Amino acid sequence: MTDDHQLRVSKIQNGTVIDHVAAGQALNVLAILGIDGTSGEAVSVGMNVPSDRLGRKDIVKVEGRELSQSEVDVISLIAPAASINIVRDYDVIEKNRVVRPDVVTGIISCPNRNCITNADEPITSRFTVLSDGVRCDYCESIVREDEVAANLDVN
Amino acid sequence: MRQDHLISAAHLSREDIEAVLDRAAEIDDDTAAFRQRHAGKVLGLCFFEPSTRTRMSFDTAMKRLGGQTVDMGPVESSSVKKGETLADTVRVVEGYADALVLRHPSEGAATMAAEFVDVPLVNAGDGAGQHPSQTLLDLYTIRENAGLDDLTIGIMGDLKYGRTVHSLAEALTNFDASQHFISPESLRLPRNVRYDLHASGAQVKEHTELDEVLPELDVLYVTRIQRERFPDENEYRKVAGQYQIDAETLKAASDDLTVMHPLPRVDEISPDIDDTDHATYFEQAHNGIPVRMALLDILLSQADD
Ligand SMILES: [Zn+2]
């Protein structure tokens, strides 16, 4: 099985492996990272790969890229079990579990169309993280965990 | 109050509420004593949505404290029409005034505006969000008529978009109140308000029929179901009729029931209730002046310290 796995999700030389992503969330992880294939990064994605810990998991490998803290924060909201592995010269030199932050700024759009953050004002969206979702600091709307991905502010 | 602004009832503690209501009672007893209290101070009225009554009520309250008001006028004739942001407008008006009152059609507008100004800011209604100064006068009226502890209150009508309802429900979690929400399924309380009520451990029940709870109630707070919320006129008629009350309806209620409404009403409370002891909505509207005087007095005095 390991060989089979290797075939589908090849090793990277330098970059980041986001492992133990909840099954079905890999494309949302790419969306959070702003990766749509147009800017030339080498990316491998495994979906619904067997996992001891999660049953099924997704895995995302991005060549030549390390993640910002705000990207990791949002990944933690849709994939709370994810681990972030930093690879240099084919070796994992750092491995961290994601930690849910208290607040996320600028990455999620408020789904309330009438929220002031969706008007043309000089402010950034800001959400407080709840146990099972996030809440807009402005209009107080709650976005449940399973709705976060649909409201990512990625262009 | 510990905070500089009044944005959401969710930020109000029991102590904050009691401080305002006690001050309002003092003002009610001896309005003359407050006549020069804030002479020389200016209140900026920023109404991005028409609301003659709320605006007049803040205007009157400030003048009865000896202060003055500046009004940005109707949105149609202001720089907002030219595309100025809310953030810029409030920063400009802040230069003219010692405190601001903001009414705006977008939820979260007051929270945002408060980030751009240093003077106290009062949220006088943000879209379907909050309307906390209305809540303070509602609480004052409830305290006078039924008391705020050991209270059973029914809140009926458009609970989804009714900002006065959202603020009132959250403020009541500070008291020993059991809250019954009566509305059509499609106009139930929004998710965030239900979340706050649940998180505060409030005693809350939801109903679709008033007669399930009417006999138990000390207070019935009625709001208007707006026609424009319904895509279909027939749907509206079917629903709205169920949530109208008249003297006949109230035969099943306690003699001490207090009926409230933030006004204006359309047809949800029949005029045949006006002459009964239940009717408290006009008294409620009058309470807006002492309560808003108390609120402005506290915020302006605090800003002086
Ligand atoms: Zn919002």
From TrEMBL, chain A:
One of its GO terms (molecular function) is metal ion binding. One of its GO terms (cellular component) is aspartate carbamoyltransferase complex. Binds 1 zinc ion per subunit. Gene3D superfamilies: Aspartate carbamoyltransferase regulatory subunit, C-terminal domain, Aspartate carbamoyltransferase regulatory subunit, N-terminal domain. One of its GO terms (biological process) is pyrimidine nucleotide biosynthetic process. Pfam families: PyrI, PyrI_C. Residues 104-148 form the Aspartate carbamoyltransferase regulatory subunit C-terminal domain. Zn(2+) binds at residues 110, 115, 136, 139. Its cofactor is Zn(2+). Keywords: Metal-binding, Pyrimidine biosynthesis, Transferase, Zinc. InterPro entries: Asp_carbamoyltransf_reg_N, Asp_carbamoylTrfase_reg, Asp_carbamoyltrfase_reg_C, Asp_carbatrfase_reg_C_sf, Asp_carbatrfase_reg_N_sf. Residues 7-98 form the Aspartate carbamoyltransferase regulatory subunit N-terminal domain. It comes from the Archaea. SUPFAM superfamilies: Aspartate carbamoyltransferase, Regulatory-chain, C-terminal domain (SSF57825), Aspartate carbamoyltransferase, Regulatory-chain, N-terminal domain (SSF54893). Contains catalytic and regulatory chains. Belongs to the PyrI family. NCBIfam families: ATCase_reg. Involved in allosteric regulation of aspartate carbamoyltransferase. This is Aspartate carbamoyltransferase regulatory chain.
From TrEMBL, chain B:
Residues 5-144 form the Aspartate/ornithine carbamoyltransferase carbamoyl-P binding domain. Transmembrane segments: none annotated. It is an enzyme of class 2 (transferase). Keywords: Pyrimidine biosynthesis, Transferase. The keyword Membrane does not apply. Heterooligomer of catalytic and regulatory chains. This is Aspartate carbamoyltransferase. The gene is pyrB.
